[in-house]
Design a protein that fits this description.
It is built from six helices and seven strands; from the N terminus they run E-H-E-H-E-H-E-H-E-H-E-E-H. It starts with a strand and ends with a helix. It has a single domain, classed as Rossmann fold (3-Layer(aba) Sandwich), CATH 3.40.50.170. It has a seven-stranded mixed β-sheet with strand order 3-2-1-4-5-6-7, sandwiched between helices. It is of the alpha/beta class and 187 residues long. 39% of the residues lie in helices and 23% in strands. It is globular. The structure holds glycinamide ribonucleotide (GAR). Glycinamide ribonucleotide binds next to helix 1, strand 5 and helix 6. InterPro entries: Formyl_transf_N (IPR002376), Formyl_transf_N_sf (IPR036477), GART (IPR004607), GART_AS (IPR001555).
């Protein structure tokens, strides 16, 4: 079985969906490590509850991205991580991690890329008044949400859609899609 690390910055509901898929036997990977850049994030509590080792860091305590990514890399190597799954990790991956893991890092993004890249993809979709948005899983490269697309799923917007309601719809799709894609890639 492959060893994965999940990177998250926030609530970690996708992290939880991955944990639950492993527990229920739908996903055959070892979750070796949570990497989180926000000490107060709920994702960290989820890791504690599940006894998953975690590396939590604060970027501003380092002199550069290279320095904190070297620290991350040390933890990945110590845990023999084969594959990196970004799940709401709100930082661009830099050359240090790409140098070691390019082609073995995936991300989930709450829009149908290349539409609405970057932050607040859900708010961007609401503002643009689109009728369809969705979810994309893609390989990570040096750009912002630009790597090769692996899977996409559409979500329809109702006429009175708001950020909260669209976020809920998107999360529901993400929690199914992400574990299924990881299983397909790694099992
Ligand atoms: C997810 O919707 C994910 O697609 C998005 O952050 C959310 C994290 O939710 N990622 C991005 O916007 C990346 N550009 P979670 O912490 O509950 O998994």
């Amino acid at each position: 079985m492959k060893n994965i690390a999940v990177f998250a910055s926030g609530s970690g509901s996708n992290f939880q969906a991955i944990i639950d898929a492993v527990k229920s036997g739908k996903l055959h990977v070892n979750i070796k490590l949570l990497v989180c850049d926000k000490p107060g994030a709920f994702a960290v509590e989820r890791a504690n509850t599940e006894n998953i080792p975690r590396f939590v860091f604060t970027a501003k305590n380092y002199n550069s991205k290279v320095e904190y990514e070297e620290d991350i890399l040390r933890h990945l190597k110590n845990n023999e991580v084969d594959f990196i799954v970004l799940a709401g990790y709100m930082r661009l991956i830099g050359s240090t991690l790409l140098g070691e893991y390019e082609g073995r890092i995936i991300n989930i993004h709450p829009s149908l890329l290349p539409a609405f890249p970057g932050k607040d993809a859900i708010g961007q979709a609401i503002d643009a008044k689109v009728k369809v948005s969705g979810v994309t899983v893609h390989y990570v490269d040096a750009g912002m949400d630009t790597g090769p697309i692996i899977a996409q799923k559409a979500v329809e917007l109702s006429d009175d859609e708001n950020i909260e309601s669209l976020q809920e719809k998107i999360h529901r799709v993400e929690h199914e899609l992400y574990p299924a894609v990881i299983e397909k890639l790694l099992s």
